[in-house]
Specification:
Blueprint lengths: L1 H13 L38 H31 L5 H43 L1 H19 L5 H7 L4 H14 L1 H22 L8 H44 L1
Helix pairs in contact: 2-3, 2-8, 3-4, 3-5, 5-6, 7-8
């Protein structure tokens, strides 16, 4: 318990609550989310130690809402630029509140799914810590694979909200159907996205905290992640067309027989 208390104290000293602005699954990508830097090229940054746990929770909620607002705007702009070839700023601002409502519901739904999936792990985690060794590693790896398998059908839920202006739940259902019918291709696509994103992040993160080259890394990260998000909208559009074509063929075949 003492070791855990020291570890949590160290984490609390380096935790920047502004990292909560990077929300999932919808948010503005940030290279600095994984870097709890205490220095920058201009020297030591200004810091404020939050005096109470209640204030931490309040700030976490406020910053999360701001992050979802920014992520909603970012996703809508990228979707319009990718699928329509231009950005209609007036329309983007007009539908922003509606999209934010759907995004907020999707965010809460995702938290609920993750919490429900985490309950079995919480039950066996003490035994993993007590046993350790290869058995504990195997259980964690198996649980991670199961988690990915269960969450994969939800990866296109945001795309339905922004590409088709669909409410949250129909977007989730459409995402599950699309992923089920295109599972090998979708899994390969997202594996490629993860490899490209994490590989480039590894390069961007090689600079030190006090190096001005970090600015170049932030710009490069923004360009790559925005391009990958645009590619996902293109894939979603084409995959939807293929799924609809397969469904129509199946209906015609059933009518003929």
């Amino acid at each position: 318990m003492n070791a855990n208390r020291e570890a949590m104290s160290l984490l609390g000293e380096r935790l920047n609550l502004f990292s909560m602005l990077r929300t999932f699954p919808i948010g503005i990508p940030s290279l600095m989310i994984a870097r709890s830097s205490l220095q920058n090229p201009l020297g030591e940054p200004f810091s404020w130690q939050i005096p109470s746990f209640g204030l931490v929770i309040l700030l976490w909620v406020v910053l999360t809402v701001i992050g979802l607002l920014g992520g909603t705007f970012f996703f809508k702009v990228v979707a319009q630029a990718t699928l329509n070839g231009k950005v209609d700023w007036f329309n983007t601002i007009k539908v922003w509140p509606w999209h934010f409502t759907q995004v907020l519901m999707l965010f809460l739904f995702s938290l609920g799914v993750i919490f429900a999936i985490s309950i079995p792990l919480a039950c066996v985690f003490p035994f993993i810590l007590a046993g350790g060794g290869s058995l504990g590693t195997f259980i964690l790896v198996a649980y991670g694979v199961l988690l990915v398998w269960l969450l994969l059908p939800l990866v296109f839920a945001p795309h339905g909200i922004f590409a088709h202006h669909s409410p949250m739940w129909p977007s989730v259902v459409q995402s599950a159907r699309l992923t089920r019918m295109t599972l090998p291709a979708s899994a390969l696509f997202f594996l490629s996205v993860i490899i490209l994103s994490q590989g480039m992040d590894f390069i961007w993160s090689r600079t030190g905290d006090v190096s001005w080259l970090t600015t170049l890394g932030i710009i490069g990260h923004a360009f790559v992640t925005t391009s990958l998000l645009a590619a996902s909208f293109v894939y979603y559009r084409d995959a939807n067309k293929w799924v609809e074509m397969m469904v129509n063929k199946a209906k015609l075949s059933s009518i003929k027989t």
